[in-house]
Design brief:
The complex is a heterodimer of chains A (321) and B (340). Chain A has 321 residues and is an all-alpha fold. In chain A, 73% of the residues lie in helices and 0% in strands. Chain A has 14 helices and no strands. Chain B has 340 residues and is mainly α. Helices cover 67% and strands 2% of the residues of chain B. Classes of the chains: A mainly alpha (321), B mainly alpha (340).
Amino acid sequence: MLNYVLRRIGYGIFVVLGVLLLLFILFFAVTTPEDVARKALGERVPVAVIEQWKVNHGYDKPLLPGPGAWRDNMLVEHYRRMLTFDFGRSDADDVPISERIKSGIGPSLALTLPLFILSLVVALPLSLLVAFFRETYIDRTGVVLAVLAMSVSILLYIIGAQYIIGRVLHWFPISGFDADPRVILRFLALPILVGLCAGIGGDLRFYRTVFLEESNTDYVRTARAKGCGEARIMSRHVFRNSLIPLLTRVVLAIPFLFMGSLLLESFFGIPGLGAITVDAIQGNDFSVLRTMVYIGSLLFVGGQILTDLSYGLVDPRVRLE
Amino acid sequence: MADWVWSNVVVALLLMGTGGVVFYARRSRMWTETFSDLWRRRRFAVLVIGFYVLVALLDSVAWVGGMDQGEDTVARYEAQSILDRLFAGSQERSYSAPFADVEFYGGAPLTHPGAHILGTDLIGRDVLYLSLKGARVALLIGGLTSLLAIPLALLFGISAGYFGGRIDDVVFFVMSTLASMPGLLLLIALIMVLGKSTVAVCFALAITGWVGFCRVVRGETFKLRELEYVSAARALGVSEFGIIVRHILPNLMHLVIITFVLMFSGLVLSEAILSWLGIGVDGSWGQMIDQARNELSRDPIVWWNIVSAGLALFGLILAVNFVGDALRDTLDPRTLRETE
């Protein structure tokens, strides 16, 4: 068990190092610090100013290890900084990136955590219900509705909700955020509703497939043959045995709650990590963007290890070796 | 030769390629039965997709000249597609509601004779025309990306699954590395680095999109390699390459078709998000939606732009999703469920 955990973590570290290499290629080799400086300062700037900017941001070293710079170069520097979580300052406005991330996690979680729990609470019972009434009109209607909901672009959900609920009906503010717990719900209601609508189609279809697959197994037929009630079969046999494929999807989603939601946050004016990322994209702020990609992959790798370990907890047949 | 000649050559080559594929597929009972089944169950969705393809073709065949009526002088030197020619002279000056013959322009209302079924946009372009033009962009995004991603996934997936060992280790490592980066962020980073052309967007979508399919191909090849007929072929002295081409690849084709269809809708929807971030493809429905976003707060409200683009996008995605579901039900009862 311990051996397995250690090996799994070792491979995870290997993958993170690979991600960092790819980030280096994208953000240092393909887009050189020179390009970044020109994007931040403008095209017509004296070379001296560019050099000074590179010194200020720590981009003034040779790119790759070479004679005279085996340890003091951008590649080593990039790895050292990322692995010690010293993200430096933003290319665009010199604010420390770690400060920004700290300020963004709270609002992001305030949006994604309720959204995550609500979508589980809505989608799981619904898909159990649809699987319970399989091959009937309820099932077919459910699937068609799920495909319909999946086929609408999330942009349209957002714009439609903001227009109809926010502007015409005036139920909730169109956008904005306030950390005060008494009013926070007013601002979060609309983005959560939109996120729920946009995600429920895919969720419903996935869970339904998992449940249906499980209810075609032999032991379910046996349970039915010995006279077990259909509701009991669904809850005691099918649901509990479907937990493995469900876990993969659910546990893997948890790390990404910290990343917030790119679209929802920036459309609804929630100052979370997603909105910070969108600002970075629109302001050509490569340092923030690459930090976000790095943090995202760290979370993903961690989540994957957690998922693998949780299999052992849910299913005694799974031996982690 | 001029660019427009080449684009017509590409269209002709694509049509011939499709014809060749259909010709070969007709000889296989599995494919003829699959498609007759699809036609029976999802006739409407197939027809809808056919309509989009037809519109895209009409917008792809283009040539210079023959347009010298009216004041439109640029048109004489730029290649105009059949669709452009059908809508020639539909330009107004500014917004005009569907079916209206008045437009918002200056202080006084300005009347125009042209009846625009879906109205016109800010600079007076016919919205029906723009919505139809989006079909070509959407099919280009889905098609070009799949053309890049699927061969890549097949190449790496088959070599990893068939040869195993070191090759498998390397491919698996590359896959886990790419899969562990947040998809949308990697996509955006790639486009920011590569530039904003159509090809760059498709390339970035392919880089982020091939991993899922590669994993499926790898697993499937792993299973196929152990089957009796592959062992028999090996015992008879068929080369590794021969085994892959004759015995492995044909047994993966159903996965290719399903993945192509299922991937397609995801790609077009991703492009809409990219358009909103300002890094999408010119002329796409996503861009129309993005540009029309603020028009909802105009008074009188301009709703026809966003509604037309949204419906055009929704129609294509819905039809593709229905066809994809039906294809998966017929061709593949299990494999792709896990990667949904």
